[in-house]
Amino acid sequence: MTGMTSNGRRPLLNRRLTEFGTTIFAEMSAxxxxxxxxxxxxxxxxxxxxxxxxxxxxxxxxxxxxxxYPPGPGVPELRTAIAAHQKHHYxxxxxxxxxxxxxxxxxxxxxxxxxxxxxxxxxxxALEPYYDSxxxxxxxxxxxxxxxxxxxxxxxxxxxxxxxxxxVTDNTRLLLLNTPHNPTGTxxxxxxxxxxxxxxxxxxxxxxxxxxxEHLVFDDAEHVPLAGFPGMRERTVTIGSAGKTFSFTGWKVxxxxxxxxxxxxxxxxxxxxxxxxxxxxQYAVAEALALPDTYFEAFRADLRAxxxxxxxxxxxxxxxxxxxxxxxxxxxxxxxxxxSDGFAFCRALPERAGVVAIPNxxxxxxxxxxxxxxxxxxxxxxxxxxxxxxxxxxxx
Length: 396
Description:
This protein is of the alpha/beta class. The protein is built from 14 helices and 15 strands. It has helices at residues 24-35, 51-62, 76-90, 105-117, 132-141, 161-167, 190-202, 242-246, 260-270, 279-289, 293-316, 342-353, 367-370, 382-394; strands at residues 38-39, 100-103, 123-128, 144-149, 151-153, 156-158, 172-178, 206-210, 236-241, 254-257, 320-322, 329-333, 355-356, 358-359, 373-377. The longest helix has 24 residues, at 293-316.
């Protein structure tokens, strides 16, 4: 039988991973190719980041920096730059030698943190909908996933703090948070984060915060690291990444900042995953993190304009649009279009409109909660977004 061992006793795939098959991203990207559709599904830019940062990577390659194994914690230049970035933008002080760890992107940082800090039977609370690697990482660690659902209210997806408090039990080990939040675009407010911090201190919980969209916040939203709240630095692992901020997602350079004990724990797991990665790119990202504030301001302004372009196009096409306060994704409700099944809608949309999107239900344990919601990425060239908006309006 396919997928069974030769003696037929059990399936080949570890049972903790049986719920995780081919991702929806692979399915929808293949559909985009076969139908020649505009792919607004997977979240990666269609242009590269700053030319000077690309040249920094080339320079590192030519100079022989990073072509062999870099140091396990990351090259000193990058760890120093990460610490300086946290200090400059948020006033948080980290020792680059003891409190910073470079990883193969944020996805490895998440996996290593969960493998290091969670044991079988531990409960991990995650905000639903969640990035799909969260569920896989919790499963690989043997933990139990406990979703707390963000629900739409007055134009944005909101966290019910009472529901979060009620989800904590004596078995809860860790809170896994993401703000700015993918896929909903919600940015947790300072007040919400303050209540989460009080809960974590009161119940003695560890917290892993995925902050890869930290520089992608719009309008009046602000990104506030949870580690800066009273009692949180010693219990929080903060995850960052170069991919989203500098539009080099293929370089796979991420990091964590935390206390020496927590960094040591995560490094103990990380060293048996990739060991090290992205040597020359680490030097380039060190230079990227030192770019002037004007770079980050221009980056935000460009993405805000693209957000508005796509959000307006989707509204004109009949969707209910939740205009995001952060990230580069727009979540929409398809019920005004007479639809209610996001999977069926997204699978039909390429033939119907020549555009690919992602059904949000894949990010939910409670699939019915996410059924009518569909996510579009706006980290694309302006002309691509304009063409997608025209196609969607024409197919209405």
